[in-house]
Amino acid sequence: MSIWGKLAGTAAGIAEAAHMSGPVHGLLGALAGGHIFRHDNDSGAQHQVAFTIGVIALGAKMAKADGVVTRDEIIAFKEVFKVPEGEMENVSRVFNLAKQDVVGYEAYANQLASLLKGNHKLLEDVLEALFHIAMADGVFHPNEEQFLADVAHLCLPKTSSAGFAVEKRIGS
Question: Range of 71's domain?
């Protein structure tokens, strides 16, 4: 099974459980916390799934940060996060769950920071991708600016020069 298929199956199972026990942001918090990986012994696959969920969720939540997810923002997501055509349906399931609101984005930022500790270049690439999504509709909304500043601070604290440079670029 591909990483995208595994990701979609995991998200669908947790979504069903979240429907019974609480709001969707509870589901997203569980995803971000890594609780879905308890039965998988392949830590490399676990990290890949966690990274993938984190990136999809942050992209979707960035699109929602200004209140409305536009077609242009969805296109921008597809531009920066290349998804194989055969996996788009699976990625869309996770994206559609995450885009419902921005609640929980901090957990995803912390998850990525933990997974990519020391890989400032990749974290900066994720931040630039989020900025691309934010600008897709032609307006850099104050809520998008705050979202980016928060994610930059969580992923690349000012103690690192890379974090400071990214935060400075997005106007925190």
Answer: 3-170
The one-letter amino acid code at 32 reads A
What is the chain's percent helix, strand, coil content, to nearest 5?
Answer: 75, 0, 25
108: Cα separation from own chain's centroid: 6
Report how far residue 157's alpha carbon sits from residue 23's, in angstroms, rounded to the nearest whole number: 30
**Taking the CA atoms of the chain, what radius of gyration do you get in angstroms?**
15
pTM: 0.71
- How far lies 17's CA from each of 23, 43, 56, 101, in Å? 10, 24, 20, 19
pLDDT tens readout for residues 105-130:
999 999 999 888 888 888 889 999 99
**Structural domains in the chain (count):** 1
